[in-house]
């Protein structure tokens, strides 16, 4: 509405001019410095999540929190900012995330910080900082919140996006990898995305990966002239990422590249084999994807991604991903601590839920409406509203309205069972009119007994409904 009003070029008083340039609204004010423009638009790649969309997000939070409780994960919140070198070391300085996509800046005291592009690194830092190594293993943590990546905004790729995720630290057994995949699959499934599938790979440990990397590098070196510009750079810095480059010509070259699972050491091979057996036992549909390497350097052994059916086919826009990161805590100076985890992108899940018309969170509906007529009645209504709401009954009002007709219209639209009417006379007498919205019958009750009467009537309505 406000936007509509501002959409026409117009003058507000003599001081401000609001004009519309393409889809940007710019307010120029003489009181502001000449170049200063107020752009009434969220920054590129960032969005407002409006009340209409909240039931999707609330449903995701509900399902994720339930999974956390069911599997014994406890909530952790870490700052949205960390020191930049934490991400550089953890995620990897040669990764796209660190090299191109971080929102980094210096604070007033010249500390170099970045908005978190993901959670796992911050959680590994928190694990060491708070001495969580003394806790019973695995330490199971759950999180939810925004992440920031200065990527090129495109379909389902935002600069501010939301993740929830689970990390289990201190356990090497592949059964935990299986449990993580089970959770990711289950959560996505419970959110109505029934055709989700899992892609999985093992990229080995630093020992076996060294030999494998040598092979991959010499293979891609021999095909250098067939690679895109980015992959030519990746060849120096992050050769495994060439395997999942989306450029056609690189994908063709990558299709014949050596595959990590053929070069796993005995330990990594048996870890992977056991994991696949667990997944078969769990009857989770998974697919081996030898090109799956993930865009973060901390991974060891298992890596996986979860796709919706349609996206899985064209191999893009994963709903979530994760894997093992057995070396991360040690890399940060902590003890040797194997770990595994995953994160789901909430923005992409919301868009998928819309596509499949998934069930969403339904706000509890008010059962009572409180209507008032006259200023004195309005004053008295405030207390009555509080008393009813405190008693646990959801009550609605529209105190700003004056006419009974318009208030009853709202009550009707909300589908409440009872409307309480407080006019000037009732407010002076200390009484309230109770109107049964189904029969239209009205009765005057004592103000002191109104809560009791409302509860009694609602109870009897429930009984009738139940008995039908
Ligand atoms: P990731 O694959 O970078 O992994 O991100 C996980 C999910 O976040 C993606 O599958 C995607 O759904 C969502 N996501 C990532 N970038 C964007 C974006 N620009 N716009 C919208 N959604 C996005 C991680 O972040 C790891 N920390 C996961 C993990 C946890 N590994 C071990 N533990």
Explain this structure.
The chain is of the alpha+beta class and 468 residues long. The protein contains 17 helices and 20 strands. The protein is elongated and about 90 Å long. The two termini are 44 Å apart. Mean pLDDT is 90; it is low at 1-16, 311-315 and 463-468. Bound molecules: histidyl-adenosine monophosphate. Histidyl-adenosine monophosphate binds at residues 118-120, 149, 151, 156-158, 161, 163, 165, 167, 295-296, 318-323, 325, 341-343, 345, 347-348.
Topology:
Layout: H1 2-6, E1 10-12, E2 16-21, E3 24-29, E4 38-39, H2 54-71, E5 74-75, E6 81-83, H3 84-90, H4 96-100, E7 104-106, E8 112-115, H5 120-129, E9 139-148, E10 160-169, H6 174-190, E11 197-202, H7 206-222, H8 229-237, H9 248-255, H10 266-282, E12 286-288, E13 300-307, H11 309-314, E14 320-324, H12 328-331, E15 339-345, H13 346-355, E16 368-372, H14 375-390, E17 395-397, H15 404-414, E18 418-422, H16 424-429, E19 431-436, E20 442-446, H17 450-467
Parallel strand pairs: 5-9, 11-12, 16-17, 16-18
Antiparallel strand pairs: 1-2, 2-3, 3-4, 6-8, 7-8, 9-10, 10-15, 11-13, 13-14, 14-15, 18-19, 19-20
The structure holds histidyl-adenosine monophosphate (HAM).
Residues 118-120, 149, 151, 156-158, 161, 163, 165, 167, 295-296, 318-323, 325, 341-343, 345, 347-348 line the site of histidyl-adenosine monophosphate.
């Amino acid at each position: 509405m406000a936007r509509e009003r501002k959409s026409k070029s117009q003058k507000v008083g003599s001081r401000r001019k609001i004009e519309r340039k393409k889809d940007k609204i710019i307010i120029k004010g003489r009181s502001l410095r000449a170049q200063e423009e107020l752009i009434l638009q969220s920054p590129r790649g960032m969005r407002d999540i409006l009340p209409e969309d909240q039931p999707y997000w609330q449903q995701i939070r509900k399902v994720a929190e339930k999974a956390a409780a069911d599997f014994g994960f406890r909530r952790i919140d870490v700052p949205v900012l960390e020191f930049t070198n934490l991400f550089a070391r953890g995620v990897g300085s040669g990764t796209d995330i660190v090299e191109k996509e971080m929102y980094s800046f210096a604070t007033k005291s010249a500390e170099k910080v970045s908005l978190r592009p993901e959670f796992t690194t911050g959680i590994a830092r928190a694990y060491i900082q708070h001495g969580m190594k003394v806790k019973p293993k695995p330490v199971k943590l759950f999180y939810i919140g925004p992440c920031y990546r200065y990527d090129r905004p495109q379909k389902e790729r935002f600069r501010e996006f939301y993740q929830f995720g689970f990390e289990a630290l201190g356990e090497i057994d592949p059964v935990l990898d299986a449990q993580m995949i089970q959770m990711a699959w289950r959560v996505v499934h419970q959110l109505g995305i029934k055709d989700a599938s899992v892609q999985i790979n093992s990229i080995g440990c630093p020992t076996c990966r060294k030999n494998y990397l040598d092979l991959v590098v010499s293979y891609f070196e021999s095909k250098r002239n067939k690679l895109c510009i980015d992959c030519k750079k990746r060849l120096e810095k992050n050769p495994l990422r060439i395997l999942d480059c989306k450029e056609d010509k690189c994908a063709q070259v990558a299709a014949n590249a050596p595959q990590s699972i053929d070069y796993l050491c005995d330990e990594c091979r048996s870890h992977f084999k056991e994991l696949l057996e667990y997944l078969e036992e769990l009857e989770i549909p998974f697919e081996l994807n030898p090109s799956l390497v993930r865009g973060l350097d901390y991974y060891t052994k298992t890596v996986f991604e979860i796709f919706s059916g349609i996206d899985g086919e064209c191999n893009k826009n994963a709903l979530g991903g994760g894997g093992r990161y057995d070396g991360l805590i040690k890399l940060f100076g902590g003890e040797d601590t194997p770990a595994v985890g995953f994160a789901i992108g909430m923005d992409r899940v919301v868009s998928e839920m819309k596509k499949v018309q998934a069930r969403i969170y339904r706000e509890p509906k008010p059962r009572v409406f409180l209507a008032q007529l006259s200023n004195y009645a309005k004053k008295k209504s405030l207390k009555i509203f509080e008393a009813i709401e405190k008693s646990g009954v959801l009550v609605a009002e529209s105190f700003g309205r004056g006419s009974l007709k318009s208030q009853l219209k709202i009550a009707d639209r909300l589908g409440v069972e009872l409307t309480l009417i407080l006019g000037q006379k009732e407010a002076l007498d200390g009484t309230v009119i109770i109107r049964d919205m189904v029969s239209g019958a009205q009765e005057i009750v004592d103000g002191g007994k109104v809560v009791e009467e409302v509860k009694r009537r609602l109870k009897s309505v429930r009984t009738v409904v139940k008995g039908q």
